[in-house]
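Comment thread on ticket #2218

A.B. wrote:
> Attaching the input chain for the structure job we discussed in standup.
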Amino acid sequence: MNKKLYTSLLLLVLSMSWTGCERVETEPRDWIKEDLVWDEQDKNATLAVFFLNDIYNYIPTGFNRVGGDFLDAGAGDALPSRVNRSVEYYTNGIISVLNNPDPYWGNSYAGIRRVNIFLANIDKVPATPASIVTWKAEARFIRAYLYFELLKRYGGVPLIADKVFTIEDNLALPRNTFEECVNYIVSECDAIKGNLTPEPVSDNNWGKVPRGAAIALKSRLLLYAASPLFNGGGVSTNANLKTLNGYATYDATRWQKALDANNELINLNYYALQASYNNIFTVKKNTEIILAKQVGNNTSIETLNAPMGYGSPAASQGLTSPTQNLVDAFPMNNGLDINNPLSGYAPQSPYKDRDPRLALTVFFNGQTWLRRSVETFEGGKDKPGGNIVQTRTGYYLRKFMADFSNNTTYTNQSHNFPLFRYAEIILNAAEALNELDKTEDAVKRVIEVRKRAGIKAGTDNRYGIKANLTKDELRTLIQNERRIELAFEEHRFWDLRRWKIAETALSGALMGMKITTKTDGTFNYSPVQISNMVFTKRLYYMPLPYDETLKNPSLIQNEGW
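C.D. wrote:
> Ran it. Output below, let me know if you need it in another format.
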């Protein structure tokens, strides 16, 4: 087998060198020779497993992935510390068919093609039948996930099932309807969940798609499908686009389907909230993480995003500036909104007695980091002024980092981006329950999340949630709870769209905090406007990439683009 493998590799390299200058493509560039990967004598399926592992790379990486910035910087919760960054196109209205910093179209279909190649060939490899069944399920999950990435951006997209296209095939495929795409992804999740690795997952298989991930994907998908934008509330006026961008009419039973999917995962009785909020993101294996994008331990989150004044040997760049809009969304530690006159909020002590998640999500003035206080006041070490990259808002990103308050430098940490975690499932369930008029049942779910966060129970044990909330009041509270609990995990950008409130939430001022030193050494805190957001209805759906519509005249472009 080794001799055959080395010979095949040599031939592949030589063929690449011979054809490297040719302009005519006689077969797809990602074509994998069957005798190289799908080796009938490779009992360990070594190269086939390499091929499968490579498919995992098509899953979005998260963190600073949009031109070096967080997607949340396009959703009002942050600004790039560097000016004129591409992620700001989502809030300043510069997005176009040629100018979309996060299209994900080509990546998704490239990944889908790789999955189909794998499914078409893996049976040729003499691995154990049980292994092949699991590998196929993992590949199909990734394909379903990539379709969801497309669906939430564009609405319905072409479904190609298991077909591996050649250059002779007709590639001018029309878009499937939104409903067809939802039904396909749900059917895939249901078909594969029993063949994926059941929980608990061994250390050797950690990072591979487990059973719970298929249920979690179905949960998120059905929640989106039940939400106002897609559940009969689309903004398209073109009749042909209405069924591409969502369901034509509203159906309340879609909320029940979303709730059932969430309960299915909850009833596995395996996943649970971590006792410590910060441990979710720094402990590689824990029962709150359902699936995360795996990378080796590193210091990249700290060096890219921690306050810029921590120089050698820490070398922080401070690329992310959370907004005052986000900071104000965190309640007090009694659970009350800062605008509630009973909350105890003091504008000149703005970080005192706040929700503990605030200090674990953003760096604010006075926090301890690497054995000194963070200085985001005007002229401070972390906001010195001048023409250098520094916070634009008075804040830096803290989330996903280990506690380095007493360290002198950074050490490698687990930084696996959470694709699905249990807190989201609980909040999904709360949202569905509330929309089904089961408001008090929904409150119980929100309390689970607030209790873990460290918010005080209060004399009524409602963790700051008032009694007799209306459905509308609880909806607003749940939306805010998702904002702060899931901050910088790429939910806010899509939540605002599916709730159909982006026209309000993403229009208006983006705020920061200007901090100046008084003569007695204390600080004066003054909210200031840093930027302005602009949102139009066409931004509820992303524009199909121009080159794709040029190549495929059967693709109907989304309205307004």
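A.B. wrote:
> Thanks. Noting for the ticket: The longest strand covers residues 523-533.
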